[in-house]
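thought: fold this chain, then report.
action: predict
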Amino acid sequence: MGELVKVIAKALVDHPEEVQVNEIEGTQSVIIELKVASEDMGKVIGKQGRIAKAIRTVVKAAATRENKRVVVEIIQ
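observation:
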């Protein structure tokens, strides 16, 4: 899941070398923390959070195959 988030984020930002993804795995759920450069935050979040919501939707669709709950957090 983390690799999927990383690929999507790197395609969106101007500084792909600063994209960091951290996966925190539990028994039933996975938390994926996405960290990008501060000037790229707007590109990852999008207008009214639409891009962030789309990223979360794609990751949740991929997670349903593994019967896990995934939470994507965009942090600074």
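thought: worth noting. Residues 1-74 form a domain with the GMP Synthetase; Chain A, domain 3 fold (CATH 3.30.300.20).
final: tokens above.
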